[in-house]
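Attaching the record inline, Q. Sequence:
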Amino acid sequence: MRRRLLIVPLTALALTLAGCTDPSPEVSAEAGDASPAASGAAEQQAARPRPGDDWNAADREYVPAVLADLEGLVVLHEELLGVEELPKRAQELASGLDAVLTMEVAELTDLMDSVDGLEPVRTDTTAAVEAIASAGSPADALAVYLPAVTELYDSAIERSNDVLEAGAAEQVRTLAQDLAEGLAADAEQVAGLEAEAE
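Structure, as predicted:
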């Protein structure tokens, strides 16, 4: 089975796809929403080691944690593909993209701020957020979001090869490539189901 991923925080997406029929307030798209889910995700992120005086030691702890999150999201996304009401689930997912990406961007830029020469990552994340905000439908949001996140992670990896272990960087790049290929097809599937429902 082809693996498909969503590179977003596990806690926030799990709440979004946990069977709610209405978009959850915990993943409100409002950037200032201090919801319990956001607080929990923030606490989880804060608990992770951050680059400090000893970057290499922190990196050895942080990179595996990120990879574990990505692996965990495989199951969630495969469940999304298997539900009968895929368009509704896609709508719920799209409604939470802004908040989810905001948390991911905050975590990623926090990490990158600790490394010299990675300032352009901020420009990349801003462009990704703006592209998603301009999407007109769930299918459009998925189609825009996935390449944007893939490009963002590729950019971050390229600029941090001097601090990320080569093996871990390649693993993230492979996961990002898998994400782009698998979810581009998913966006087409969502669009097709929406067209049939009209």
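Residues 166-197 form the longest helix (32 residues). The chain has one domain: 10-197.

More tomorrow.
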